[in-house]
Structure formats: C-alpha cells, structure tokens
Fold this protein.
Amino acid sequence: MELLKWCRLQWDRLAAVIAFAAGAVLLIAGWLGVSGVVYPAEQIPYVVSAGFGGLFLLGVGGTLWHSADLRDQWRTLDRIEQHLARGVGTAVTPDSLDDVVARLDALEQRNAGNGHSMTMLERPTLPSEARR
Amino acid sequence: MSRRNAGACVAGNLIAALIVTAAWIGASGATTLRAQVPYLNLGVIGLLVAAFANATLLAQAQRDIDARTRRVLGRFDPGPTEP
C-alpha cells in the first residue's frame, strides 16, 4: 500500500524511471541490431528507430524527473507562504522565523545544486539574523 | 508550470514521436543509403522538436519558480541593517 501511495504521489518520477529504462533497452537493442547486419542501408533503420527512439525516451525521462524536482520546489514555496500567512496578524516568534529561514536556505541550496544560482535575489537580512 | 505549458510540451513530444516514427518507416522502406539519408535527417528534426518542447517547458517552470521565490522573499521585512 505504501508503494502504491508513493507511486500515486510520485507518478512523474515513476514515469521518468520507466522512460529511462525503456530508452536504455531501445539503445541496446539498436546496438545489437546494427552490429548484426553488414550493409549501412540495413543499419540506418536501426539507428532511426532504436537509436533516435532511445534518445527521445531518455529526453522525456530527464524532463519528467527535472519537472518533479521543480514541483517539489513549488510545494516548498507553498508551505512557506502558508507559514507566512499564518503569521500575519499574530506575533511572529524568532523560532518560526528561523524555521522559515531554514526552509529558504534549503531551497536556495537545492537551486544552487540544480545549477540555478539565486545569488541575484539578494535575500534581505532578517531581524533574527541581524541580532546574531 | 501551467496546464497550457504542459499541454504544449506533450503536444510537442507527440509531434516529435510521429516525426521519428515517420522517419523510421521511410528509412526502412528505402533500399539505398542515398534514399535513406533524408529520412535520417527527418529523425534528427524530430529529436530537435522534442528537445525544444522539453527545454521550453522546463525553462518556463524555472522562471515561474524564480519569480515566486522573489515574491516570497519580498514579504520579509529587511529590518535594521548593520551600521
């Protein structure tokens, strides 16, 4: 049941893994097919079908996986905005601010890891940080 | 990432798959290398269409996330700065 739940929640990552596997199988099949015939005119159909098809599926898999990463970041921003919305009109404690800062730092690190540096954002210094 | 962007990406990938399939059918029906080369080029075009559709979707999604992150960060009060 846990696996089914994970599959339902992470359907795009599951589809990415399936696309990666299918792409790899197609590429290997194309390689075997090409190596089994002598004439280039016989090899070209293997290149177009299995070679290009495998590359196409690898591209689809990569897109799905990266899209899942971006969706995770979007959900993190959802949680931060909900957190901020709960804080409106009430006293914001240093602990809750630290929690938000920790989440933002994690998001920035993830973005930096993905090659999308957010140094241009120039995050302002928070009161809780200025006191440190 | 909006549904419209995702739909455009799916449509682009479907078109690319059709192009690659047509290239495969054409290449396997030709008997000489000279006749197969145009279909080989058609297959490359199909891959480029798929790459363009995927890259457009991911770039748009990344721009949306960057804009929203800036919006969220803008809600923080900068507070007192160091003298």
User: Anything to note?
Assistant: The two ends of chain A are 47 Å apart (CA to CA). Residues 118-122 of chain A have pLDDT under 50 and may be disordered. The interface with chain B takes residues 40-41, 44-45, 47-49, 52-53, 55-56, 59-60, 62-63, 66-67, 70-71, 73-74, 77, 80-81, 84, 104, 107, 111, 116, 118, 121, 123-127, 130 of chain A (CB under 8 Å).
